């Protein structure tokens, strides 16, 4: 009887919230009937730029045209320290705008739809990786004070709950401040983050398969540098994941 009453109360509360705060699409801001947890309308959902094969099985960059998955020239010439990297979406259009709002406009509630889209696109892939631990890419303490939050940590909280994986924010640290990567060339990005990370608690990663998490991947320099330190600390594998990635470095 108590279970039925609790279920009825939940339905009533959800109905009341829909009246007070009607569910609207995070992209086009139209009302959504039966919005579920994603809150993106079917029309906008159909336009999302999901990453599809063919792609590089190492860095995850998609190729234009037909053919199977194969290593890109960059991964053949200079294999990264991470074992594989994936992003479910391209960093363009509505996804770019959502990530910008989440990251730079304090709209932290967007962590939920962005994390759910990541799980939608990468759920099967992540399940195959036999992961032990989520490690978000850290911010330097000066950047963290300025922004007020680490977007990778907020995403990790959602993924940790859905994947039933622990997340540790005390494993990897940014040992020095770095310039924003956005306006730097590929070479400058690599130099900018070189030796910028340290592993504080190697005992937590030794022999573990790590999910390294961030919001966007461009050249992969940040992920590569983080993976290098995690591997040096004894990590068995580092699987890099982001919400989105650029189509070209």
Brief descriptors of the model:
249 residues, alpha/beta, Rossmann fold, 2 domains, five-stranded parallel beta sheet, two-stranded antiparallel ribbon, globular
Q: Can you put this structure into words, describing what you see?
A:
With 249 residues, the chain is an alpha/beta fold. It has 2 domains: 40 residues, no CATH class; 198 residues, Rossmann fold. It is built from 9 helices and 7 strands. The longest helix is centred in the first third of the chain and has 19 residues.
Please provide the count of β strands: 7
Mean pLDDT: 89
How would a textbook summarize the main sheet? 5 strands, parallel
Give the class-level CATH name of the largest domain. Answer: Alpha Beta
Number of domains: 2
Structural class call reads: alpha/beta
Topology:
Layout lengths: L1 H19 L21 H5 L26 H5 L6 E3 L2 E2 L2 H12 L6 H17 L5 E4 L4 H7 L3 H13 L8 E3 L11 H8 L3 E3 L9 E9 L3 H12 L4 E9 L4
Parallel strand pairs: 1-7, 2-7, 3-6, 6-7
Antiparallel strand pairs: 4-5
Helix pairs in contact: 5-7
């Amino acid at each position: 009887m108590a279970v039925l009453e609790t279920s009825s109360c939940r339905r009533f509360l959800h109905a009341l919230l829909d009246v007070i705060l009607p569910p609207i699409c995070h992209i086009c801001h139209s009302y959504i009937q039966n919005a579920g947890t994603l809150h993106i309308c079917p029309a906008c959902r159909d336009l999302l730029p999901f990453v599809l094969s063919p792609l590089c099985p190492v860095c995850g960059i998609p190729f234009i045209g037909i053919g199977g998955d194969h290593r890109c020239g960059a991964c053949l010439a200079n294999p990264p320290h991470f074992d594989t990297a994936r992003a479910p979406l391209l960093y363009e259009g509505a996804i770019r705008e959502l990530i910008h709002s989440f990251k730079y406009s304090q709209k932290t509630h967007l962590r939920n739809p962005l994390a759910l889209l990541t799980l939608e696109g990468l759920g099967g892939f992540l399940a195959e990786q036999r992961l032990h631990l989520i490690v978000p890419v850290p911010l330097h303490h000066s950047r963290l004070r300025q922004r007020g939050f680490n977007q990778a940590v907020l995403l990790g909280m959602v993924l940790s709950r859905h994947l039933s994986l622990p997340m540790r924010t005390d494993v990897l640290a940014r040992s020095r401040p770095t310039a924003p990567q956005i306006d730097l060339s590929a070479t400058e990005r690599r130099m900018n983050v070189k030796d910028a990370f340290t592993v504080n608690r190697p005992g937590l990663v030794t022999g573990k398969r790590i999910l390294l998490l961030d919001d966007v991947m461009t050249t992969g320099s940040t992920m590569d540098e983080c993976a290098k330190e995690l591997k040096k600390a004894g990590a068995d594998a580092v699987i890099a994941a982001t919400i989105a990635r650029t189509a070209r470095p």
